[in-house]
């Protein structure tokens, strides 16, 4: 599927949007952000971290942690040049993700910060495009829901618009990662997201918030630590229309004893 348009919105100047290709509808997907490995021959869509390379003859999605830091990037974000881009609590301590130790929220509250963060993220997006990825998956859009009201949806969306416009200008599609229940259609209509990657939407009973906006342009991931019932229900409800994946929480590579992968 191809989309051609102008990226125009409330958060920035229009950028020409080149033709972008969306993932094949209901194309069997594999989610490899915890480490790359050779996918099964019938897999059509592969998601990998931006530090990895895409897979030939597949639709490749480039994962970017766009609203908080990766544990192995602490020195980069805490350098003198970038330390002001991190969110601090009133105590002065960095705001650490309560669920992912070692990951710190980015401070999206000012236009200057958003522009500086986007400059960094857009460089990573350029690298994804140069490697041959077809799309990007910017993660942790929902930090505003976990920031004790320090961050807002409007500011996170304004940042998302900056790198979505950039990705579109170089021919990459952009996924809305999670946050469906909090944003409704706003992510698509305001930011310009093209499709969705939804984690645990069956577990949290919010899959309709994605299908209502993106139809079947969705990849769903349920996790083994929630038990298989949610995945079975997801397969029954949507497995004939979209790719629904059942993966281990840390999405480790095949060959690791904790690896698990199933797809409806």
UniProtKB/TrEMBL annotation:
Glycoside-hydrolase family GH114 TIM-barrel domain mapped to chain residues: 30-252
EC number(s) per UniProt?
Answer: 3.2.1.22
Q: What organism is this sequence from? A: Mycena rosella
Report the domain of life of the source organism. Eukaryota
What molecular function terms (GO) are annotated for this protein? alpha-galactosidase activity
Classification via Pfam families: Glyco_hydro_114
Q: Which InterPro entries match?
A: Aldolase_TIM, GH, GH114_TIM-barrel
Q: What class of enzyme is it?
A: hydrolase
What name does UniProt use for this protein?
alpha-galactosidase
Catalytic activity annotation:
Hydrolysis of terminal, non-reducing alpha-D-galactose residues in alpha-D-galactosides, including galactose oligosaccharides, galactomannans and galactolipids
* Keyword line: Hydrolase
């Amino acid at each position: 599927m191809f989309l051609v348009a102008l990226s125009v919105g409330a958060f920035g100047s229009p950028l020409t949007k080149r033709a972008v290709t969306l993932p094949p509808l209901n194309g069997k997907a594999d989610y490899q952000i915890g480490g790359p490995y050779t996918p099964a021959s019938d897999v059509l869509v592969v998601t990998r971290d931006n530090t990895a390379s895409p897979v030939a003859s597949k639709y490749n999605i480039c994962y970017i942690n766009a609203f908080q830091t990766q544990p192995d990037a602490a020195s980069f974000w805490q350098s003198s040049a970038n330390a002001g881009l991190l969110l601090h609590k009133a105590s002065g301590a960095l705001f650490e993700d309560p669920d992912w130790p070692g990951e710190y929220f980015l401070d999206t509250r000012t236009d200057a910060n958003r522009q500086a963060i986007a400059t960094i993220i857009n460089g990573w997006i350029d690298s994804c495009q140069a490697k041959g990825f077809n799309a990007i998956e910017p993660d942790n859009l929902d930090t505003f829901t976990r920031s004790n009201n320090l961050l807002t949806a409007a500011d996170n969306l304004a940042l998302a618009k900056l790198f979505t416009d950039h990705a579109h200008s170089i021919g990459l599609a952009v996924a809305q990662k999670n946050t469906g229940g909090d944003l409704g259609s706003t992510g698509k209509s305001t930011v310009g997201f093209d499709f969705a990657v939804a984690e645990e939407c069956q577990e949290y009973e919010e899959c309709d918030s994605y299908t209502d906006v993106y139809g079947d342009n969705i990849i769903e991931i349920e996790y083994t630590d929630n038990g298989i019932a949610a995945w079975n229900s997801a397969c029954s409800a949507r497995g004939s229309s979209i790719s629904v994946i059942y993966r281990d929480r840390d999405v480790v590579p095949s060959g690791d004893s904790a690896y698990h992968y199933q797809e409806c």
